[in-house]
Design a protein that fits this description.
Blueprint (H helix, E strand, L loop, with lengths): L1 E7 L2 E8 L2 E5 L1 E5 L11 H6 L5 E4 H6 L3 H6 L3 H5 L5 E4 L2 H6 L2 E6 L2 E5 L6 E4 L1 H11 L3 E3 L11 H26 L10 E6 L5 H12 L5 E4 L8 H11 L9 E3 L5 H8 L5 E3 L2 H7 L2 E4 L2 E4 L19 H5 L2 H9 L3 H28 L2 H12 L3
Parallel strand pairs: 4-5, 4-14, 5-6, 6-10, 10-11, 11-12, 12-13, 13-14
Antiparallel strand pairs: 1-2, 2-3, 7-8, 8-9, 15-16
Helix pairs in contact: 6-7, 7-8, 11-14, 13-14, 14-15
């Protein structure tokens, strides 16, 4: 299912075979929370942009249009016309960050929808059933994501509950995958390591969930307020205690610099809203640093966003034109910027995979960071 092709230090070049195709790692998963990439980017566009995995969210799709609706329409792949792997986030993070009046109990979480205020209950079994209805390639375990600033005593009890919930997730998904009418009977399950910024809690939790022999393992609860240095420290302490022969996923991270550093620490799955969110605001990633197209200096700039870039935006349009679209609030401007950023991220992941294969990842990382910080 998952195999390592080459290691360069702790950096892993691998591949994960799934029912919806093989994922080459390290990989960046493009975020389509509600089954669409924000910025009017279609699934046909994603093929052009070298996307391997699309990520959607259990909570958002449960609230709207409803996971039963998606199931009746043949599952998420058919619904959004995407034939490659899809990972669904469990909804845990959204329940704790978006929902109001939530109440956490052993059975799960009671909360109000952020859309219409209706009362919802979600626990491990409910999250697995929703994700089974969505029929994603990879289902994420339902967990609590405690604040990085939470007291140690709270984090300890929260992680204990997350471990118990993980066992329930595993049992329920095993049951669902054996049902006759389940759309994807080979749905994979990734467990999530939590523990805020406490080394000993993270390490102990990593060891415990590693024993469960899951399809993959995520490090959650980072990029939520702690410093980059704290995040890298937690990765240094934690990743080595997760199974090396399974994919390691750093949730919600991050900048190109974060990805480069995390790959060097053994991480091979990533997702983040940065390329799409920044693109919609005219902030564009290039190999020579980030640029803001709203700046006056680009008004008469007839060059592409980045010379040599093969993305659809750079192949046809100038900085000046895209800047005009953004200023005029034309949706095409956002679309072109998002497409460029996603192409930049996916191309960087190709470069990372090649550098690991060639055994010169550290040299590549150093040079890439040097170039991107020169503006």
């Amino acid at each position: 299912m998952y195999r390592i092709i080459k290691q360069d230090g702790k950096a892993k070049r691998g591949e994960l075979k799934t029912v919806h195709g093989t994922i080459q790692t390290p990989v960046f998963m493009n975020v389509g929370t509600a089954a669409a990439i924000k910025g009017a980017v279609s699934t046909q566009d994603l093929q052009t942009l070298k996307t391997q995995v699309q990520l959607s969210n259990t909570y958002h799709l449960h609230v709207r249009p409803g996971d039963q609706v998606v199931r009746q329409l043949g599952g998420l792949h058919k619904f959004m016309v995407w034939d490659k792997p899809i990972l669904t986030d469990s909804g845990g993070f959204q329940v704790f960050s978006l929902a109001s009046l939530r109440k956490i109990k052993e059975e799960g979480v009671y909360f109000q929808s952020h859309v219409d205020g209706r009362k919802i209950f979600m626990g491990p079994e409910e999250s697995m059933r929703i994700q089974s209805n969505l029929a994603s390639t990879i289902a994420m375990a339902f967990d609590e994501c405690p604040s990085s600033k939470a007291p140690k005593e709270y984090v300890e009890s929260s992680v204990e509950r997350t471990t118990r919930w993980l066992e329930r997730c595993k049992n329920e998904l095993n049951r669902l995958n054996q049902l006759e009418d389940t759309i994807n009977k080979k749905q994979l399950l990734f467990g999530i390591n939590q523990g805020a910024i406490f080394d000993e809690i993270r390490i102990e939790h990593a060891k415990r969930i590693a024993e469960m022999d899951l399809d993959g393992y995520a490090v959650g609860g980072l990029a939520v307020g702690e410093t980059h240095e704290e995040m890298y420290h937690i990765l240094d302490a934690t990743v080595e205690h997760l199974p090396i022969n399974k994919p390691t996923y750093l949730m919600g991270v991050g900048t190109p610099f974060n990805i480069l550093e995390a790959v060097d620490r053994g991480v091979d799955f990533f997702d983040c809203v940065y390329p799409t969110r920044n693109g919609r605001h005219g902030h564009l990633y290039t190999n020579n640093g980030k640029i803001n197209l709203f700046n006056q200096k680009f008004e008469l700039d007839d060059r592409p966003i980045e010379e040599g870039c093969q993305c659809p935006a750079c192949q046809a349009y100038s900085r000046a034109y895209i800047r005009h679209l953004l200023k005029a609030k034309e949706m095409l401007g956002m679309r072109l910027c998002v497409m460029h950023n996603l192409y930049f991220y996916n191309t960087m992941m190709e470069e990372i995979r090649e550098a690991i294969e060639q055994g010169n990842y550290k040299k590549y990382k150093t040079e890439k960071i040097r170039r991107m910080t020169q503006i």
